Amino acid sequence: MPARTSPLMLTGIVKREGDQYAALCLELDVASCGQTLEEAVAALQDAVETYLEYMRDTGREEGILRPVPIEALREFLTEAYEGEPAKPRTFEALPLEYARAA
Q1: Is 76 a residue whose pLDDT tops 50?
Q2: Which whole number is the average pLDDT over 82-90?
Q3: 33 - beta bridge partners?
Q4: CB under 8 Å to 92, separation ≥6 — which residues?
């Protein structure tokens, strides 16, 4: 029986952006979107899984965690209006969990 590893606890944040939702995983700098909140979260989970599998399959497990750069996070969390300073946006933070057998 394969050894089990602890789940990797990740943070996903989701915001409404026009007529869709954008989702971002803070610890991996992986993003996705969807027409609904549920679609955005599911797409982010798929993107995270694909990224983690790729990193594992290419022997890059040591470099898996790559947090979102602060400027990219600031851009995600604020909305700039032409000629005005950036304004805070509302968003929802959701825990993401990924576990795999070693």
Answers
A1: yes
A2: 55
A3: 22
A4: 13, 14, 15, 37
Characterize the bridge pairing of strands 30-34 and 78-79.
Answer: unpaired
65-77 average pLDDT score: 90
What is the model's pTM? 0.74
Cα 98–Cα 88–Cα 68 angle in degrees, nearest 5:
35
For residue 57, which amino acid is it?
Answer: D
Q: Residue 32 is part of which domain span?
A: 8-79
Beta bridge partners of 15: 22
In a domain, 93, yes or no: no
User: Please, are residues 9 and 93 in contact by the beta-carbon 8 Å criterion?
Assistant: no
**Contact predicate 18/1, CB 8 Å:** no
Assess if residue 24 is contained within a domain: yes
The token pair at 37 is 């909140």
% of the chain residues with pLDDT over 90: 51
- CATH code, domain carrying 53: 3.30.160
Q: Would you say residue 57 lies in a domain?
A: yes
